[in-house]
């Protein structure tokens, strides 16, 4: 927009067009006032939200090639780039409260695996940002790795003095776990240095060749491309996400999601098939409930493990299954399904989950730092 | 926390600022331009200038601004020109699951430009200098929509513009530099009650304290066939920049996921054909080769302009 690009002569001293300067001034002022006031009275903006996809039932195991990728460091660390490290190049230092720095290489992991110390678990990886409004940052896989404890003890970490272990990824991302989580949490799988995902080498985009795996935790506690562990006396909540204000413990709060139909979808009136998942890092999910149009919450069907195992035999290699633990498992999502009768018109479906520790999704939660998702509200139009 | 989608808020401020011009309008002369703007982006620039997808999980275009811009200025006296602009905005963003579209009147710009040639003794020379001041005022829209049609607060901008005519060549060049004070005055916009994490069409009303910015523009034009039988054609090279005084830092905080500092450089060109009665029809295009906390967009403007003496 160049209003007057090639006019170089000055205008007349008096106003052109047969009106006086006074008239022109008044006209100009009135016009400016009108321009100023008219829009102030408008306030007529509106927003529409449309689903791009109609929703789908997600598989119990998320394939590696479609597993979500979210790198918190990408928008937090200057000049961030995804590390490109081969198994041969990978090295991880254990530093801090140790007699001397110990460097672990991939061959050390392999040797432990050969010695029968590899652990395979099912775990749902959920980004803390995954929510009703930002969907898809979640997936479940079978992960295989070696307990970090083995190498900490080999390095001679001072267990008495150590309060926390500071973790550093090759991309600069940081986080921490408590020493108690390593040595004093028998009800959880030990923190693992994982190198396989769904039976394949851990993809680089998911933190390969080696990342930390913390069974109960949001993604940001599971540091990718792990290259340094520092034992420290500090109890400071160290970490990139903690600096940004996210909760330090990182335990996945109980949540549930409807993946079919998706919010704002138009569905055929009548019996509508709905499906989704629910997960909690505190305890196994014990109930998933649905409410239609502010009606009472009623339980939906959780898909039994036998059906899952028949479709996804790989899940039977997980420690939770091998040890015969009852399903659902802690920190592993359950899939649910139900059929809902919907008359033509607009409907609001509400979904919530409860875990065995008594945690239930709250009706409201405005704090995005706590990882809590409020009761999901899915608005659909039946036609 | 849809940081990727919210970054579009900053673009609004960059696109609707008043434009400094070296030459004031003649007294009683009014220039009006109506432009259709189409900005499209698949990527955004991060706080440190890296390009990344505009929306996580979307490789295609994910930011679309399809807006109408009304721009007018009139010579109040031979040295003072009033300027005003009003956008009717349609902004679309998408993520892997949803498409969000907001329609509404964006922030209005009101200002004045004062020609300084008289005081510099340049009245008969090729040089021109003007000073301008403008205020950007929200028009009552809702600032916490996803996306919003504006940042929701009041900005003040002052600028100096220097221009030079290369007469007898039908060419000119000008450059401007300015300062934009981004206030925390939010009274001219509204906010809806929004339960973040549940409501899709809005986000929490955080009223960010946006950082002040330097602004700059440069343009050079050459007119083809000034006196010939063919329509007069103006060819322009154009550049714009918005540069926050403080460098953008990470946008990654829970307390405020909306980036508050932006930097962007846009370069482009334009062609305007002038027909009968001085009515011009033009096209301008810009690319965004560098930015921080802004959308890496391609901007296209199709406009009709006219000047009349009142």
Describe the protein in words.
The complex is a heterodimer of chains A (383) and B (310). Chain A has 383 residues and is of the alpha+beta class. Chain A has 2 domains: 6-59 and 252-382, Immunoglobulin-like; 73-243, Sulfite Oxidase, Chain A, domain 2. Helices cover 15% and strands 31% of the residues of chain A. Chain A is built from 7 helices and 20 strands. Chain A has helices at residues 21-40, 106-114, 148-155, 179-183, 240-244, 305-311, 319-322; strands spanning 46-51, 91-96, 102-105, 119-126, 138-147, 164-169, 174-178, 192-197, 200-201, 211-213, 226-232, 255-260, 266-267, 270-279, 285-292, 298-299, 301-302, 334-342, 345-355, 376-382. In chain A, strands 3-2-11-6-7 form a 5-stranded mixed β-sheet. In chain B, a hairpin with a 1-residue loop joins strand 13 and strand 14 (294-309). Chain B has helices at residues 3-6, 8-15, 117-120, and strands at residues 29-45, 51-53, 63-75, 80-94, 98-105, 108-115, 127-137, 155-165, 171-182, 213-224, 232-244, 263-274, 280-292, 294-309. Chain B is mainly β and 310 residues long. Chains A and B meet through helix 1 and strand 1 of A and strand 1, strand 3, strand 4, strand 5 and strand 10 of B. Strand 1 of chain A pairs antiparallel with strand 5 (98-105) of chain B.
Reported for the largest beta sheet of chain B, the result is: 12 strands, antiparallel, barrel
Overall form of chain A = globular
The helix-and-strand class of chain B reads: mainly beta
Sheet having the most strands of chain A: 5 strands, mixed
Tell me the structural class of chain A.
alpha+beta
What proportion of the residues of chain A form beta strands (DSSP E)?
Answer: 25-35%
Shape of chain B: globular
Helix content of chain A: 10-25%
Largest interface: A-B, 76 and 95 residues
Q: Going across the major beta sheet of chain B, what is the strand order?
A: 1-3-4-6-7-8-9-10-11-12-13-14
* Biggest β-sheet: strands ordered side by side in the sheet of chain A: 3-2-11-6-7
Kindly provide the radius of gyration of chain A, computed on alpha-carbon positions and rounded to a whole number of angstroms.
Answer: 28 Å
Order of helices and strands of chain B: HHEEEEEEHEEEEEEEE
Query: How many beta strands in the DSSP annotation of chain A?
Result: 20
The CATH architecture assignment of the largest domain in chain A turns out to be: Sandwich
Cα distance spanning the termini of chain B: 51 Å
- Share of residues in strands of chain B: over 45%
Rounded to the nearest angstrom, the radius of gyration of chain B is 20 Å
Total number of domains of chain A: 2
